[in-house]
Design brief:
This protein has eight helices and seven strands; from the N terminus they run βαβαβαβαβαβαβαα. By secondary structure, it is α/β, with parallel strands linked by helices. Keywords: Oxidoreductase.
Length: 256
């Protein structure tokens, strides 16, 4: 049996303090990201949010001047590097930014570039940002990576194959990273979100939960060191996917 060598940054992991952290949240100008930003700010943390829309970020700044904002296109590797260089004190990285396009692959009006944009935002950029941020995180006595995935990464819906594939990818990658980093001071969490009432889901779906409801459930799991956070209806989805996969697919396949 091969003995695992501890990383020099290793110390026995204790619960991460809920205050006094420096938190970087991608896609923090609205929806889940904004609710997370507000929660961490209320708990007396330094909060940095990124977004592509300068106007939305300015609106957040007007409401909560303490929040630091950065206009950032996460599909650009140079932008990611600049973020990392600018904020070396970050000890909690939250990969929340995401986009979803619903379309039929046979539709000739759909350009192939959409595929790359979705994969870069939802899967490639989070992994690149983690890779770039790791040297800083490894030097922190307490650190965390929190990836936001989706129940659609477990059971897909027919109209969003790329989105579902990207979320399945981040789900599996998060598990593997958790194993790789288990001998370091970094904890790796995953928020497996149900359908949430955000600008991305506007006009689609039923039975949505609010971003605040998701964050309240996340907070309980976070302080309890529950690394894989199954939020809301994703608890039932896990059960169905494991024991009754055909029922789970029947429920989610026609989702809009």
């Amino acid at each position: 049996m091969v003995k695992k060598v501890l990383h020099p940054a290793y110390k026995k992991k204790s619960k991460i303090s809920t205050q006094g952290n420096t938190v970087l949240i991608t896609g923090g100008a609205s929806g889940i990201g904004l609710a997370l930003a507000h929660k961490f700010l209320q708990a007396q943390n330094t909060v940095i949010i990124t977004g592509r829309n300068a106007e939305k970020l300015a609106g957040v700044k007007a409401l909560w001047p303490e929040i630091l904002t950065e206009v950032a296109d996460l599909q650009d590797l140079n932008v990611l590097q600049k973020l990392v260089n600018r904020y070396p004190n970050v000890n909690i990285l939250i990969n929340n930014a995401g986009i979803q396009y619903n379309y039929e692959f046979v539709n000739p009006e759909i350009m192939p570039e959409l595929i790359e944009a979705e994969l870069r935002t939802n899967l490639i950029a989070p992994l690149q940002l983690i890779k770039l941020m790791l040297p800083h995180l490894l030097n922190k006595p307490e650190a965390a990576i929190i990836n936001v995935s989706s129940g659609l990464g477990l059971v897909p819906k027919e109209s969003a194959p790329v989105y579902c594939g990207s979320k399945a990818g981040i789900h599996i990658a998060t598990k593997a990273l958790r194993w790789q980093l288990e001998a370091t001071s970094i904890k790796v969490f995953e928020i497996i979100a149900p359908l949430v009432d955000t600008p991305m889901t506007q006009g689609r779906g039923k039975g949505k939960i609010s971003p605040d409801a998701l964050v309240n459930e996340f907070w309980h799991d976070f302080i309890s060191d529950r690394y894989e956070m199954r939020i809301g209806k994703t608890k039932l989805l896990f059960f169905l996917q494991r024991w009754f996969p055909q029922i789970a697919e029947k429920i989610l396949r026609p989702g809009v």
